[in-house]
From TrEMBL:
PROSITE patterns: ABC_TRANSPORTER_2. The lineage of its organism: Bacteria, Pseudomonadati, Bacteroidota, Cytophagia, Cytophagales. Keywords: ATP-binding, Nucleotide-binding, Transport. CDD domains: ABC_DR_subfamily_A. GO terms for molecular function: ATP binding; ATP hydrolysis activity. Residues 2-217 form the ABC transporter domain. The keyword Magnesium does not apply. The keyword Amino-acid biosynthesis does not apply. It comes from Reichenbachiella agariperforans. This is ABC-2 type transport system ATP-binding protein. InterPro entries: ABC_transporter-like_ATP-bd (IPR003439), ABC_Transporter_VariousFunc (IPR051782), P-loop_NTPase (IPR027417). Pfam families: ABC_tran (PF00005).
Length: 226
């Protein structure tokens, strides 16, 4: 459904993504984990067409390109519109005219309040709700767990499972490995713009140990805590 081949992105002389190749099929959830600055957001923006000027290719099954649900790491909010109005607006972008969100308001958001007065976590949940209700075919979710309380994180894990069952293709990033191991079919460890490891479910625990070793080593010992 979505095939990425040799995707490379540079900012000036700095190469940020280095020949990434992978494929996301319907009913698959792919997780991306990597340290700050590894290139996750750059990858996601390239996938959804926000970032041009990359080399390599991003190919979709034709009807999928019009049906991408992108949750940015920091979803932009429009001022002076309520949560309900926000949802109505993003659904209208997919030609869906809908006013009643009571049953879909699974995060108990104050939908009659202005969305720009929501907390960071509430805005993230509203934006996530919007892309899910749009009924897209391909979901690109940049840190959907970030800023969410524990209960909402569990709900997002459930949402990812539902998307898989519904045959959607999903790519999701997180800094918390366990959120990905609970929800993904494949995990890709992105390091300095390249996939250092790409593994399926059966190797998640093995790879978690490897990633921990590669990322932190004994650096905390340098604090000399006694
Ligand atoms: N507009 C830009 N101009 C120059 N360099 C940029 C630009 N945007 C991102 N970068 C650099 O590209 C690299 C990857 O950034 P990116 O935001 O994709 O990382 P990330 O993995 O999403 O990080 P984080 O986990 O902190 O959100 C970083 O080194 C960053 O400084």
């Amino acid at each position: 459904m979505v095939r990425v081949e040799n995707l490379s992105v540079s900012y000036g002389s700095k190469q940020v993504l280095d020949h990434l190749s992978f494929e996301v099929k319907p009913g698959e959830v792919h997780g991306i984990v990597g340290e700050n600055g590894a290139g996750k957001t750059t990858l996601f923006e390239s996938l959804v067409g926000f970032k041009k000027g990359y080399s390599g290719s991003v190919d979709y099954v034709p009807d999928v390109q019009q049906s991408i649900g992108f949750l940015p790491a920091n979803p932009p909010m429009i001022t002076k519109i309520t949560g309900s109005e926000y949802l109505k607006l993003v659904l209208l972008a997919r030609g869906i005219d809908r006013d009643d969100f009571d049953e879909s308001n699974i995060f108990d958001l104050p939908l009659n309040s202005y969305a720009d007065t929501y907390s960071t976590g509430m805005q993230k949940k509203l934006a996530l709700l919007g892309v899910i209700l749009q009924g897209n075919a391909f979901y690109v979710l940049d840190e959907p767990f970030n800023g969410l309380d524990y209960q909402s994180c569990l709900m997002v894990i459930d949402i990812l499972a539902e998307l898989r069952t519904a045959g959607k293709a999903v790519i999701v990033s997180s800094h918390i490995f366990s959120t990905l191991s609970d929800s993904c079919d494949y995990i890709h460890f992105l390091k300095r713009g390249a996939f250092q490891h790409s593994v399926g479910k059966e190797k998640f625990s093995e790879i978690e140990a490897v990633i921990k070793r590669e990322l932190i080593r004994d650096s905390v010992k340098g604090l000399g805590i006694r």
